[in-house]
Amino acid sequence: MTILLVEDCDRVRTVTLNRPDALNAFNEALYDALTEALRAAAADDSVAVVLLTGAGRAFSAGTDLAEMAARVSNPDFVPGKHGFTGLVDALEEFDKPLILALNGLGLGIGVTIIGFADLAFMSTASKLKCPFASLGVAPEAASSYLLPQLVGRQNAAWILMSSEWIHAPEALEAGLVWRVCEPDELLDAARKHATTLAALPISSLRAIKRTMMEPLREGIAAARLRENQCFADLMGGPANTEALTAFAEGRAPDFANLPAGW
């Protein structure tokens, strides 16, 4: 199965995450594929806008937890060419409009990617979650910096800390997404807006995006360094180990009996 579907129409490149049986969770192969797709779209003069969505009932369930567990437990695990870090690099560097059509479940990178999007459309059937604390890890993708920019400190604190679902009305009210649509209208609405932008000069679109992004780059870089260090400190620790063990055993994690400080 092709894990990424690409379709061009009217200078809009629609990219569809296509691991529906895994809820479009990102394994190393999908991280690499989307990284290369974004770089290819940036370099292609026939593409003005990228529209990103998911196949099936999920936008993306975030990082593939089975592969995360293998990374922790297997010293011979071979990472992808680009991996998670490469994808975030590509998102930060992408200099054309990026539009999201959040068609279903979104977790982890399926939510934090919104921080790099220019417009996000969300289905009324979609729900979003940042499960970092419930996995015993830290935020990612500069979300500790970009989400407060979008939704304010308190909304961002709840989204990043609680591991609770955020439904479409809450996401719209907080400013996490720009429009909420019925499921059968989502792609049409996103494509309509993408096509409107794509009819405009790419040079102007790039200039506008550059002038909007440039003031944020220092903060993004600093946040990524902080997050990466926290993630490295927590990955494989008692809380993360309990979360991944519970996932593998099909039960809820129990953090009550962790060592002091965890």
TrEMBL record:
| Gene source species | Aeromicrobium panaciterrae
Q: Which InterPro entries match?
A: ClpP/crotonase-like_dom_sf, ECH/Chromodomain_protein, Enoyl-CoA_hydra/iso
* Alphabetic keyword roster: Isomerase, Peroxisome
Task: Please list the coiled coil stretches.
Answer: none
Query: Can you name this protein?
Result: Enoyl-CoA hydratase/carnithine racemase
Report if keyword Amino-acid biosynthesis is assigned.
no
Where does the record say this protein resides? Peroxisome
Q: PANTHER family under this entry?
A: ENOYL-COA DELTA ISOMERASE 2, PTHR43684
Where does the source fall among the domains of life?
Bacteria
